[in-house]
Specification:
With about 210 residues, this protein is an all-alpha fold. About 75% of the residues lie in helices and about 0% in strands. Helix 5 packs antiparallel against helix 8. The N terminus is likely disordered.
Length: about 210
């Protein structure tokens, strides 16, 4: 009875590998609340990033008290929101605020891809991750997404929908991570880590085609 938690992860990873063109941010609609709500389902990089952070948070939260699990859920949600906002502000203000470095979009596309690799590493080393470290990871993963969406003209309504959809995905990942920890299905964690590493490789190779 320990196999079921691996099935949802396998399904998500299969979806990712079947939808490689959807990884890139280019081409997505960025107008309105509905577009923001739909983006995580059409942008598989965002789906995997948000779900993966939730799974890691669930694994951390399920550890014994005193093992770095304190208020992990709230910290990660706040950090992810701050990352999106910081990235969006960076994009909007980089040409207007002296001293704020303006970087090409390709840097942020690469950073978004690297976020998947970082999640793979976190899944493999989850027993050593503290709540603060996971919050820092969530912020770093979210920041390039915020920059990319703002650079493509996303407005407040889009970001509002994106935040709601991301919260739902995060909650799903959190529950899945807790289930994996409670049922002690270690192979699900390894399968997920391998899948995230493969998704990163696929995205990286697509960038050079």
């Amino acid at each position: 009875m320990r196999a079921p938690p691996a099935a949802p992860l396998a399904g998500v990873l299969a979806l990712a590998t079947a939808a490689v063109p959807a990884f890139a941010h280019d081409g997505h609609l960025h107008d309105g609340l509905a577009a923001g709500l739909a983006h995580p389902l059409g942008g598989v990089d965002h789906l995997l990033a948000t779900l993966g952070i939730g799974v890691v948070a669930g694994l951390v939260a399920a550890r014994p008290v005193g093992a770095g699990r304190e208020s992990v859920g709230a910290r990660v949600v706040l950090a992810g929101a701050l990352g999106l906002v910081a990235g969006a502000l960076w994009s909007m203000l980089s040409d207007r605020m002296p001293g704020l470095v303006s970087l090409p979009g390709g840097i942020f596309e690469a950073a978004a891809a690297l976020g998947l690799l970082a999640i793979a590493a976190a899944l493999l080393r989850v027993e050593r991750i503290a709540a603060g470290g996971l919050a820092a990871l969530a912020l770093a993963v979210a920041l390039p997404h915020g920059w990319l969406h703002a650079s493509e003209g996303a407005g407040a309504a889009f970001f509002g929908g994106l935040a709601l959809a991301s919260a739902a995905l995060y909650a799903a990942g959190l529950g899945l991570g807790r289930a994996i920890a409670v049922l002690r299905v270690e192979r699900a964690r390894w399968v997920a880590a391998a899948g995230y590493a493969a998704a990163f490789g696929w995205l990286a190779s697509a960038a050079f085609r």
